[in-house]
Amino acid sequence: MLEGAELYFNVDHGYLEGLVRGCKASLLTQQDYINLVQCETLEDLKIHLQTTDYGNFLANQTNPLTVSKIDTEMRKRLCGEFEYFRNHSLEPLSTFLTYMTCSYMIDNVILLMNGALQKKSVKEILVKCHPLGRFTEMEAVNIAETPSDLFNAILVETPLAPFFQDCMSENALDELNIELLRNKLYKSYLETFYKFCKNHGDVTAEVMCPILEFEADRRAFIITLNSFGTELSKEDRETLYPAFGKLYPEGLRLLAQAEDFDQMKTIADHYEVYKPLFEAIGGNGGKTLEDVFYEREVQMNVLAFNRQFHYGVFYAYVKLKEQEMRNIVWIAECISQRHRTKINSYIPIL
Amino acid sequence: MITPLHSSLGDRARPCLKKKKESGWAWWFTLVIPVLGRLRAQTIMKARLKGAQTGRNLLKKKSDALTLRFRQILKKIIETKMLMGKVMREAAFSLAEAKFTAGDFSTTVIQNVNKAQVKIRAKKDNVAGVTLPVFEHYHEGTDSYELTGLARGGEQLAKLKRNYAKAVELLVELASLQTSFVTLDEAIKITNRRVNAIEHVIIPRIERTLAYIITELDEREREEFYRLKKIQEKKKILKEKSEKDLEHRRAAGELLEPANLLAEEKDEDLLFE
Predict the structure, then answer these.
(1) Within its chain, how far is the Cα of A242 from the centroid?
(2) A 145-164 residues with CB below 8 A of B?
(3) CA-CA distance, B21 to B201, in Å (whole number)?
(4) How confident is the model over A217-271, as pLDDT tens digits?
(5) What are the two backbone dihedrals, phi and then psi, of residue B6, each rounded to the nearest 5 degrees?
(6) Which family does the entry's similarity section mention (chain A) (predicted)?
(7) Can you give the residue range of the structural domain that contains A249?
(8) Nearest residue, CB atoms, A223 vs list B107, B112, B151
(9) Residue B182 burial (CB count, 10 A)
(10) Residue B89's closest chain A neighbor by CA?
(11) Is A3 inside a domain boundary?
(12) Neighboring chain A residues of B109 at a CB cutoff of 8 Å
């Protein structure tokens, strides 16, 4: 948008960028992971985590320590940090941060819709919602009788409204399979986010657009892979692919016709970015496609920190923190189930 | 022998009865079947004894067959439980793997539960007359979670579903084995109780009754014999007495000898000689 935004960036967002870079520096290093992997019990894990930036976050937990408690506490921490960023942000950073929360909001909305349809108590579902995806109208969900009511009364106010309008007409909300709905919402969310970043221009676009393109292509590949052997038809599958990214439009057309994994691999071989990824599958580590995609995502997120004066650092930080949480939960599960053969299959970050 | 109903000293004076643990009059009935001491009763009792013994042998065979099956089931239960431990561990780990890749899908899964996909049919199996329930599982309906994890973690979710399906099948088998185990245990206890009852209560009772009948019969025989002897003696005495009487009367000359047809030389009635 503005040329020479380096001059003006720090006025509005400098403090927060400094803060987020500081947070990034406290992510767990390889040495920390090695220490964690050597723990025998969850108590050891807690002691090791106390030496890192996590500090005493588990101090108030009663015995016995379970993996889900660790997970909830870490998520609370991340939430706290994110809320701090959001509360101190100015436009257009606050819109950017809101876009980031949309993906969690989509999950929460799907959960609430499902619960409302099945007449479950709202309180139980609210507890299970992702805290980053909170929006003010959440408690009001149980008033709605049908999904269309839900949409008209409540969702219209949230940032998710345009995504719903994109996907379908309101009448079709009833019959649609919940999973298809979730994926369609996510597709339109990604497209809107991409447009926003592109319009913002500048370093943000340079950093965020490749990341989002990779996300779109990754979704296309994974959806195709997982839809082999299910009742999802090819046309339906095609409607779930986001309309941007390296694969758009020819790759997506080819992918929609793919029947099995090898065909997918040949399509991927046309793109020199994805060729080495697909080749890394299998091998000694038994890596799956998802694992290699996670690694690539982590790589791109780490690279985002090499440039300054853009909003991508916030996105990258949250994603990296989430990956770290997943890693810690994985190691904790392996320890608590005493199944240490695959304990090293976490994704190293730094 | 018939023991009297009451005794002032009770069982203490009768050492043969001291070992009986029950008190009251009920045990008296268990000692001997009240029956008259007749020959016909003896044949009846013998038949009953035979019947009881055959019954005892048959029941013993049934008990053996049940015990054999019981041991087999026990072995199978141990194997299945070990396998169960391994399979559950596998399944729990694949849950952790799926959570790592796909995030937290547990609430979605729990919310979408409506109908059971794996159902169980109960069938009956017969072992030596004991019916054992056997559970068999079957699938019904399609997988309503086919599209879960479409965007993330689909492979791990598929593996997870397979592992837990295996665990469920194993659980059904284990349930069926355990119910058979419990039912067989009951049946074996009952059969053994019956065998013991026949062996230690009914057969001795019949044998005692038989012994009693035999003693009664013997006694009666002795009585008869004694009576016969007495009658013979009496008859002899009577006979001696009457002979003596006869001698006296002959000697007194009161008694006329009746004419002896064979001894007489001359017969008056004969006109011509």
Answers:
(1) 15
(2) none
(3) 13
(4) 988 888 888 888 777 788 888 888 888 888 888 888 888 888 888 888 888 888 8
(5) -125, 155
(6) Belongs to the V-ATPase V0D/AC39 subunit family.
(7) 11-337
(8) B151
(9) 11
(10) A337
(11) no
(12) none
